Amino acid sequence: MKNLLVLFLFITNFAFAQELDTPKEGKVLVYFTRYDATGFLINFKYFDGDKYLGKFNHGKYMVYECEPGKHIFWSKAENFDFVEAELEAGRVYIIDSRPQVGAIKAGVNLVIFNKELSNYDRYKKRIFKSLENGTRYLPSEDDINKEAEEIKDLTAKGMEKFKKLKSEGSDRIGILTDGMFFDKDYFVDKDFTKKE
Questions:
Q1: The sheet that has 44-48: what strands, in order across it?
Q2: Would you call 30 helix, strand, or coil by DSSP?
Q3: Is 90 left (phi over 0), alpha (psi -120 to 50) or beta?
Q4: How far separated are the first and last CA of the chain, in Å rounded?
Q5: Residue 57 pLDDT more than 50?
Q6: Residue 99: enclosing H or E segment and its boundaries?
Q7: Fewest Cβ atoms closer than 10 Å to its Cβ: which of 56, 62, 66, 89?
Q8: What was the pLDDT predicted at 169?
């Protein structure tokens, strides 16, 4: 019986790894997850540079297909948080949105999921559980266009904040290099410099 349980767990873990989407040829997939339930009702807004991607709260995740190369991913809650990325074609990346206690509502901390995280094994299980049990956020193009129009000022403020932090050499910008991709049961990474 014990051997059957071990085999079942192995198969379900392997099956999950196979369920992650594969990018189209020449494209990249970025998963934005939100496992932690702190501030579960608060929507975090997500961006790729000045492109608005949508908003969602706890229990959801988003899969974003984009071109390889340089990107500035960021999220807005009570605060702004940024990840500067260099993405490789054909790869899948995961960025988790960790809620933080804020003065009025939850703040956000974008964490690049990779093997250098201090609690990698535990965190990996949480991310997998988030993707298995979560609801995939699929905003309609009409909703995105309507919301993007409403938050033009926010988009400009976010990009200004990024430029200011970048010019100051701030360590508050996460760095996602082309080697920090998801590869079945492990991540290969290069320079992980964001402080937690």
A1: 51-56, 44-48, 69-76, 80-87, 173-176
A2: strand
A3: left
A4: 41
A5: yes
A6: strand 92-100
A7: 89
A8: 95
Side chain identity, residue 130: S
Whether the CA torsion 63, 69, 51, 49 is positive or negative: it is: positive
Specify if 8 maps to a domain. Answer: yes
Asked whether the whole model's pTM tops 0.70, one would answer yes
The strand pairing partners of 45, in sequence order, are 55, 76
Q: Is residue 179 very low, low, confident or very high in pLDDT (cuts 50, 70, 90)?
A: confident
For residue range 77-92, what is the model confidence (pLDDT) as tens digits?
A: 999 999 999 999 999 9
**Structural domain harbouring 9:** 2-188
Domain count within the chain = 1
| Residue 196 within a domain | no
Facing residues of 76 across strands? 45, 80
Positive/negative CA dihedral, 145, 84, 137, 68: positive
In terms of Cα–Cα distance, which of 192, 37, 14, 15 is closest to 113? Answer: 192
- At a CB cut-off of 8 Å and minimum separation 6, what does 77 contact? 39, 42, 44, 45, 99, 102, 105, 106, 107, 108
| Alpha carbons 58 and 35: distance in angstroms, whole number | 6
The pLDDT of residue 64: 97
Per-residue confidence band for 106, with pLDDT thresholds at 50, 70 and 90: confident
Q: Is 100 within a domain?
A: yes
Q: Is the pLDDT of residue 112 over 60?
A: yes
What token pair was written down for 172?
């508050």
